[in-house]
Write a structure and sequence with these properties.
Elements: H1 7-17, E1 26-27, H2 28-36, H3 42-54, E2 58-62, E3 68-72, H4 74-87, E4 97-102, H5 109-122, E5 125-128, E6 131-135, H6 139-148, E7 155-160, H7 168-175, H8 178-201, H9 207-221, H10 224-227, H11 242-264
Antiparallel strand pairs: 1-3, 2-3, 4-6, 4-7, 5-6
């Protein structure tokens, strides 16, 4: 199975994994070297950096030696900090639910689209038009996201139990596409579990190889904790592959992240 990693996605993944460990902004020359190790050529790095600058993810800056560099915007830092909790933290699975009820005037329908897309990216499932649901452990991140996007005037948030009338497991299967989520976990395993088996049985990788393997695995993995928001295990199918994919990523992180840092900071 082939895997697609866009240059822009890899730059975001790099900043989440290693970019914040730089003292000051990341020099463009360093970004070209480090993305080159993951198969991205210099023109693609530069054009992707320009797009991230237009989206206010990166800000132009100067490195200590005066060369061109880029720093994370404050919003980008907040997004990556929220991502840390999703990607690296063990989810605190809640038996309660977070319900978002929203209404956006027709003349501001562009905000309705933004609201729906952000709730979907946070991992919410759709119950009905204007009613979305997620596990209650996402309350803090949801609140911060809506505040950053100035959308709180259109949304009411509620927290509580599902009282019926369908069994909760049946309702969850309507609110989320569990087959599609399972397929994403299986694709991650198909692509990256062989790398873990090789690490378990083979020699220690070089820092460059560790960095490259880890960056590509993280670029795939970091979407999964958003698509799969940490639903209670007893509401999921018995053969749910999410437990295994989470364990594979956790071991890849343990084995590769620190070793890859030696290539980032030689």
């Amino acid at each position: 199975m082939a895997e697609q990693h866009t240059p822009r996605s890899l730059i975001v993944t790099f900043h989440g994994a290693y970019g914040r460990s730089f003292e000051g902004p990341v020099p463009v020359s360093a970004l070209v070297r480090l993305l080159g190790a993951a198969g991205v050529d210099a023109p693609s790095v530069r054009s992707s950096v320009s797009r991230l600058k237009r989206r206010d993810f990166l800000l132009p800056a100067k490195a200590a030696d005066g060369s061109a560099a880029y720093a994370l915007s404050e919003e980008a830092r907040l997004l990556l900090e929220d991502g840390d909790r999703r990607i690296y933290g063990a989810p605190r699975v809640s038996e309660e639910w977070l319900v978002a009820v929203f209404s956006v005037p027709e003349q501001e329908r562009h905000k309705r689209h933004l609201l729906r897309s952000r709730l979907a990216r946070l991992g919410f499932g759709a119950v009905a038009p204007g009613v979305w649901i997620a596990p209650a452990q996402l309350a803090g991140e949801t609140t911060r996201t809506l505040e950053r996007l100035h959308l709180t005037a259109y949304v009411e948030l509620f927290r509580g139990a599902h009282l019926g009338f369908a069994p909760t497991a049946e309702a969850v299967a309507r609110w989320w596409d569990l087959a599609a989520l399972a397929k994403q976990h299986e694709e991650f395993l198909d692509l990256h579990e062989p790398a873990l088996r090789a690490l378990q049985t083979g020699p220690e990788p070089t820092p460059e190889a560790a960095y490259r393997t880890y960056l590509l695995a993280l670029d795939t993995w970091r979407r999964l904790p958003y698509a799969d928001p940490g639903l209670p295990r007893d509401l999921l199918p018995a053969d749910w592959p999410g437990d295994r994919s989470a364990a594979v990523f956790a071991e890849l992180h343990t084995r590769l992240h620190a070793r890859g840092a030696r290539f980032v900071h030689p």
